[in-house]
Automatic annotation (TrEMBL):
It comes from Candidatus Taylorbacteria bacterium RIFCSPHIGHO2_02_FULL_45_35. This is MurNAc-LAA domain-containing protein. Keywords: Hydrolase, Signal. PANTHER family: N-ACETYLMURAMOYL-L-ALANINE AMIDASE (PTHR30404), N-ACETYLMURAMOYL-L-ALANINE AMIDASE AMIC (PTHR30404:SF0). GO terms for molecular function: N-acetylmuramoyl-L-alanine amidase activity. Residues 87-201 form the MurNAc-LAA domain. Pfam families: Amidase_3. GO terms for cellular component: outer membrane-bounded periplasmic space. Gene3D superfamilies: Zn-dependent exopeptidases (3.40.630.40). The keyword Signal applies. Residues 1-19 form the signal peptide. It comes from the Bacteria. One of its GO terms (biological process) is peptidoglycan catabolic process.
Length: 217
């Protein structure tokens, strides 16, 4: 699956200006996990706190820049208290897929890997494009795509994935985010956002129907 994102991006780059793209008519729902008073995991870089909710927002913002530059429609999922309500918000916007952006945490400040969570078959198909792209971009150990029974993918009908791209409690990950806030480029935030876009491009290139708004068990 390592080449799917590259192939999808190549297809977009070779299309003439004004030609149809795999994203035509599609809406990408973007959920920045936590927020609304909920911090998520909290790491530290040389005494400066790094809050997961802030990292989630930053990745969403960078992904939105890429989507906008490529004329792709997206919907910012409202940061509601209930995961189910967040999914309902994405569905009400007519979204075709959902990415719930999260970052992991641990008491072990050297723990760091990439993992994603799904529930239904359509989620697994969608995640099989998004997750490997993130793994390739960040170069962290791959803990794979895991079935869960608690995340946003439990609810609603959208093909979705909950990503845990890296650990904000890892010292390197936390300091990388501080670098991003200070204007650095090619940080994990930018790499993750680009990987998500590449995965989306590959997914919609391979699934011209967008995977459908229904979900199969």
């Amino acid at each position: 699956m390592k080449n799917t994102a590259i192939l999808g991006l190549a297809l977009l780059l070779t299309l003439p200006v004004g030609a149809a793209t795999p994203f035509d008519g599609k809406i990408i729902a973007l959920d920045a996990g936590h927020g609304n008073g909920e911090t998520g995991a909290v790491g530290s870089c040389n005494g400066t706190s790094v809050v997961e909710a802030d990292v989630n927002i930053a990745v969403r913002s960078e992904l939105e820049k890429i989507l906008t530059a490529n004329g792709v429609a997206y919907h910012d999922v409202a940061q509601l208290d209930s995961r189910q309500d967040r999914v309902a918000d994405a569905e009400a916007a007519g979204s075709d897929v959902l990415i719930s952006i999260h970052h992991n945490g641990s008491t072990n400040i050297s723990a760091d890997y990439t993992q994603s969570f799904v529930t239904q078959r359509n989620d697994k198909i969608f995640a099989s494009y998004i997750h490997p792209a993130i793994v390739d971009a960040l170069g962290l150990p791959d803990k794979g795509i895991k079935n869960d029974g608690y995340g946003m993918t439990v609810y609603g009908s959208l093909p979705g994935v909950l990503t845990e791209s890296y650990f904000v409690t890892d010292t390197d990950g936390a300091c990388d985010f501080i670098d991003y806030q200070n204007g650095a480029t090619n940080t994990r935030v930018q790499k993750e956002a680009q990987a998500m876009y590449d995965g989306l491009a590959a997914y919609f290139s391979a699934n011209t129907g967008g995977g459908g708004r229904g979900r199969d068990k």
